[in-house]
Amino acid sequence: MTEPAIELRLWRQFVAVAEELHFGRAAARLHMTQPPLTQAIAQLERLLGVRLFDRTKRSVQATPAGAALLPQARDLIARAQALPGVARAAASGEVGRLRLGFVSTVGFALLPQWVRGFRALYPQVQLELIEATGDVQLQALERGDIDAGFMLHSPGFVPAGLAHQRIAREPLVLALPEQHPLAAARSLPLAAVLDEPLVIFPRRIVPSLHDAIFGLYHAAGRMPQVAQEAIQMQTIVNLVSAGLGLAWVPESVTQFQRPGVLYRKVAARKGPAVPGCETSLVWRAGAGGGPALERFVAFVRQQL
After folding, report:
1. How many angstroms separate the most distant Cα atoms in the chain?
2. Half-sphere exposure of 296 (CA within 13 A, CB side)
3. Mean pLDDT for all residues in the chain
4. How far is the CA of 124 from the CAs of 113, 117, 118, 150, in angstroms?
5. pTM of the entire structure?
6. Closest among 204, 108, 111 to 149, alpha carbons compared
């Protein structure tokens, strides 16, 4: 059975009578005459199917049903009065929900401090953080499952159809086992590492960066000796620790101090230069991610 729709006006009139316990005073408070107020309370009682007040010529008392409804009705009216402010706050991006994808490298430093700062400024915006590789984020953006994402890519590359804000550019460094013969050197020549087994992410995860790394080897006349593929940077570093090979990783990954792993810069004295990488905040171009996304993009730009 469908419950009757009850106008907010009737609840306001009920609260006035319940608080005044006098129809005349309640009517004056509501800037109306008493007969229409009496009729309104009678209408509310009919809609609810219960008596809300016991009336005599000398007194008005709330019934148990009326007393039980009073705090709920007050809360309903208060929430209704707050709705215009909520609407204005949502329209300005101060209230809402923002779903952010991110790659693990952003989680080492930038993302935690930005999330903390944004939440301090906009505590009523719910931030939903979703760790995902670039390929997964692209699919989620296409479906509308996330509003924006932090992605890793080669310098200057941005997937088609996405707006973006570059937030970091950094070099690639080499992760190697601490027992490796090359570990004693503080800086390594590129030629010394090109024939070493490689631990790398699959191409589908970050195609542009994968191609840049392979391009480095090809330009030097070598074919990368891929020993193992892994998706997450932490997993790649763990595999390096186990001695499966060397790995090219963003410099920010050096904050992940895994026992048994050292990080070294590689100098290309002749031939191709070691590529760098970039991290960008990306979102669907022209899709209108909403005021909360606009607030977040503006916040990120202020941090750069």
Report:
1. 104
2. 30
3. 90
4. 18, 13, 10, 22
5. 0.70
6. 111
